Amino acid sequence: MPDATAQRGVKVMVIDDSNTIRRSAEIFLVQAGCQVVLAEDGFDALAKIADHQPDIVFCDIMMPRLDGYQTCALIKKNARFRNTPVIMLSSKDGLFDRARGRMVGSDQYLTKPFTKDSLLQAVATYGPQQVQ
């Protein structure tokens, strides 16, 4: 189990078109001491990312207008956010989906429904304090 203090103050962006998923993730992350920025789709995320400069991004794949693959690719193409870890969230767990996530630059792939532990483990792994 990751050290609970490792997440303190980590700024996390959660991009998902499902209000339920956004709220669940927010509750888990806030309980762990993270600052949370919510976005309901890729366009919303791209509008907010420069203002909030998150340390880590959780991005749903199946979203209207701009899907998670496109959103991740755009984040990774921006020189300022190229090194920001992007964790894909999806209910699809196929090899193709995971490979496509890697191709657009995602750092990890979590399947929904995710658990509090899997979310916090990703923050502990990819958050700014991963230097030992």
Strand line-up across the major sheet:
2-1-3-4-5
Q: Give the uncertain stretches in residue-range form.
A: none
So, CATH architecture? 3-Layer(aba) Sandwich
Give the overall pLDDT as a whole number: 91
CATH class: Alpha Beta
| Shape label | globular
At CATH level 3, the topology is: Rossmann fold
Strand content: 15-25%
Main structural class: alpha/beta
Q: What name goes with the CATH superfamily?
A: Response regulator
N-to-C series of helices and strands: EHEHEHEHEH
Distance between the termini: 16 Å
The radius of gyration over CA amounts to 13 Å
Give a brief description:
The chain is of the alpha/beta class. The chain has 5 helices and 5 strands. Helices cover 41% and strands 18% of the residues.
